[in-house]
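Second opinion, please. Please look over this fold, written as tokens:

===
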Amino acid sequence: MTEKTVDQVDLTTISELELASSINSLDGIAWRIEHDAGDGRIKDGSEVNKSLAEIRQKVGMLAEELRRRTGFKTDERLRVYIQEKVKEQNQLWDKQWEEIYTAGAVFKFREGEGEEGPKDVYETVRAYLPHHGTIGPNQIVLARIRDTGKFLTFDDRRVPQLEKLDLKPQYHSKKTGAPRLVKYNQEPEKRARIEVPKERSFRAFYETGAVFTHAGFNDTFEVYGCFNLPQREQDEKNEVVLARGYYADNLVEFTPRDLGMMVNVNMKPRYHKERSHCSSFVSFDLWALPVE
């Protein structure tokens, strides 16, 4: 249940776990609004007061329902109860995310969630960490919409919206005709390590839509996203650029070991309208036509 739906549902049908989690989430939103207003990032004081009043009203509705069920009279006892339930909820979400954070996992959005594709079924293709300096998520998956060439990313903050399905993977089956992802440690014969000057940085390729050539692959690529390899320290040496062939439908990972063979080229992106800051969150169609 989200902050938008509190006054649109019958609270008697919501579990204590969801009630406590929603109160905790709304308290977090209120804290961020107050923090941003205090730092001057939100200028409209009347709008801040209006938003906070709406949140507090909804928190009050949820808290009243919890009091009715639990019989707790004091705010302190209710606060402790909410903390216990939030911990329980987080443990459940961690377990669910662990299943989705596995290559070949098949999942979908829960009923009423996922405006971008509520009926789509997804398969985890690759697990990543966010690149160094990213604020918010702890883990990310690259997923493919089943029976399509469309790919997008999910992070662990979305696990409450997701539901794992008991279906066999397609992308990781030899029977699929989908384009394969070339991982950073595959096709090593094309990745000869060449020493580069210290002033050259792998982050020169950290722009979505940036175009570069790679001498080993003898091909031109366009950047889609930037990540950190899983189970590695979040550091530039472990970061990976995910790129699509500029002229071909292939998806390849590049790391700092490839830097000596990579050269930025002054070419317009084919699959993005313009270059932009490279994000850990990308959505694209591997078979999409170039931007006109």
